[in-house]
Records
---
Amino acid sequence: MSSPANYYVKSVKDCMDELKDIDIITASAGFDQGIEDWGNLLSPKDYTTLGSMMKEYSEKLCDGRRFAILEGGYNHDVLGKNVNAFCQGFKYLRIPNNGISETGNRRTQSCYGHRDNGTG
């Protein structure tokens, strides 16, 4: 059985799998979903995974173009730890880049990770 955090990360991955023909990947990084914040959901490891996914998909789809904006996170005792975890994944890629780039008209698509227990 998948945990709510695993379901959240998987839902973001599933959405990213559907992305095509984009110019840039952006994140409104809501760290309020942290396990020690009001969302009580994502661990620092989950944030690293989300950052890594953004890096990976940006390399595959739009020559690595990506950015994130801090949007939430209210427990200042752990905010720095969660932001750092995300940034570690965001800047390092576990899968090698093949260096192939595409040009042309592209459109923006969006993935919205939402808190859900996996039941709907």
---
Amino acid sequence: MSGTSLAHDGLALVDAAKHAAAVPKLTAALESSRSPVWLLARAKAYTALNEPLLALADANEAWHAALSRGRRQLMMDAQYRRAVAYLRLGRYADADRACVWTVHLADGGAANSKDDPTAGDIGADGVYGLDIAKAQKELDERMRKKKAGGMEAAMKTDTPEMKMVNMVLTIRGHTLKQLQGLVDKGEKDGEGIKAVASMVPDVDEGKSATTTAADKSTSATSAILTPTTTTSTAPAPANLRTQDFQTATQMTISILSKGNDASALAVHFTPTTVRIDGIKYPDGQQRDWRATLGGEIDPDHSTYHVTPSKVELRLRKKDAGTWGKSVVEGAE
């Protein structure tokens, strides 16, 4: 099978949220070409599979591949993927900076590190000294104008660049809250507030995890590339379906999963995420499930309820209002 055909299949699997099945297809395709589109698709799959270091390595390489091809939109996508990876790694300063870099590119800014718009917020000790309150106020104002703009504003933002900006603004809301939490705790010298990353990605960053991943995927990739008449490929396990509804003060997410033992489930609430350890998937296997929420909750007043057919999360909103869509990143 050609690299293009493998990539086509891999991209379709990512679109269908079948991330575990997509990775070996895309890995095999990337042996023929280091396409930024394929790298970004694999980065997305790795994020969903809770492999942020691998996602970061692909996003970094994708940025350089996009630069060499003059694909500015894909460079923006790569910065966005870096922001998501840093957020998952707990590197909140770098996650916020990657959000700023994405918007910087969307606004027509230069891609070189000399024009890094976050450089003035970094102290001599490497600590990210962003004025969080000011940044949050500017973010809130931008989101308010977007909501107040109605149809006219929606038409103006219906471009790939502005869609990307809207996505990254949601991520930035999470990073600012996490940074504020570290400041409130008196954090002065930790990975979460250190500015380590460069606007022009280091292609070696995250590569320490890729050797192990390559070893794990060798057999899967070989099976794709080597024709056989005696081996059948098992279908990838399906994701869990979810339903949600919200009021001004509560978000309820129902995860359609049958046969769970309430005493065996472990549900973890943070202000911006929910993780469930050991929930049953449609194939009968127990895996972890995770969601990045569209707003901030009060973990101490959030609960869950297990029924024979679902696990229901009842999330108390920290502040009354309407949320955007939560990002579900269940394991495959």
---
Amino acid sequence: MQAIPIYGGVVSLLGGSEGAAISELTLLRFYIFHVALFPLLLMLLVYLHFSSVRRVGLNPTRKAAGEGVGIKQHLVNLTILLTVLVGLLVTLGVLAPQYLPAAADPYETLPGIPPPWYLLAPFGLYELASGWVPRWVVGLGLLAATTAFVFVPFLVRRVEATWSRAVLAGLALAVWLALTWYGASVA
């Protein structure tokens, strides 16, 4: 994580470990973030939003009374702020460029990191087919198969169950379990 420019040290500090392994300390830190710090940050943001709406005066009755700033002026102020922030980020990127090390291979699994249990079947298929098919083709096929599941309810309109559907579902489950077993044995 230290190789990541600018925020790599912060990620290592938050992660609690120098290596790629996630420890108990990492889980404890992120639990505290999600239970204590993030709700406090959300309450602070809600307070800032309400106080800025009250201060700016987006209420039309206050605008008629001559109080506050109108919505047009508020949008102009936000545009100016956004332009300054983008300008600062571009300036930082130009004046202090951070160069990354060699590009990572997204199709190569890091050694020593097994996939989670729910990804063992795609991992097994990926490892099984990558011997004779290029890795990017296998990845694209897995993406296409995953995307195809979205359209299954639209393709299957009949509600009644037939024996062919039961056999097809049983066959799909058997293939899934076999790929899960193979993925667990390879990982």
---
Amino acid sequence: MRYDSDISGYKGIEMLALEQVRPVAVGTHAPGVLQVHSDRVLAVYELIVVQEGRLPIAEEDAEFNVGQDEWLILRAGRRHFGTGAISSNMWFYWSCFLAQESDPDVAEVVVAQTGVVPSGDRVRWLFDNYLLDERRDRGHFSADAYLGLLLNEIRIDTPPRQASEATARDERVVAQVKEYVRQQISNPALTTSGVGRELGYNPDHLGRVFRAVVGKTIVEYIHYERISRAKAKFEEEDLTVERVGLAVGLPNVRYFRRLFVRIVGVTPSQYRQMFMRRRPD
């Protein structure tokens, strides 16, 4: 673990043909450390989440001015450098990792490269506990889990791009679908055709409208809503994986586990254990 943003010791790491994202280091850039961000090329990706002030920085020809609760991915093998003075109160969390841009864990955020983190408190919790576990030398599993969760928080929390042609009526229809899904999330038989039937819409047309407005299919939205509800239960209640799966409409434990790993990056048991360690006795 490092508590400044000098990772010069990692410049010689070569990009490997990896099957997953692999964490390298995590830390904080403290206020007043630098007046201008360093000019350098790293062999690792760097995720930055600013907590206070603004960070003026560029990656080759692209310039960014990253503010509070905004994130930036600096890509491996590309020059990045400061473009202006850093305010004395500016500080940020950072995490460096190895990956390929084709890896699904980083593909979406690398394409976007920067954005806003609406759930700033949650990202701060993840970074703080990531740093704490590194200090306690919890091992690679802990680092893998926290990095995966951070990347997924950014990916999930980035607001969907809405089609410009979406009408007010389309948005009302989408709101109906979302509300119905939330009410029926424990129903394992929840499907696009079932939603359409209950709300009185043609399922094919409903699916097209929903995707145009939200950027996801109804099935994808149901999956994300189930897993989001499952995460909340693991965080707030002491329930088994089986009981949580039943509560969110995923009674098949093997399928629940596969879907949870795909969306969150760790297994339900691993996610549950992370929160059990921090509950008071």
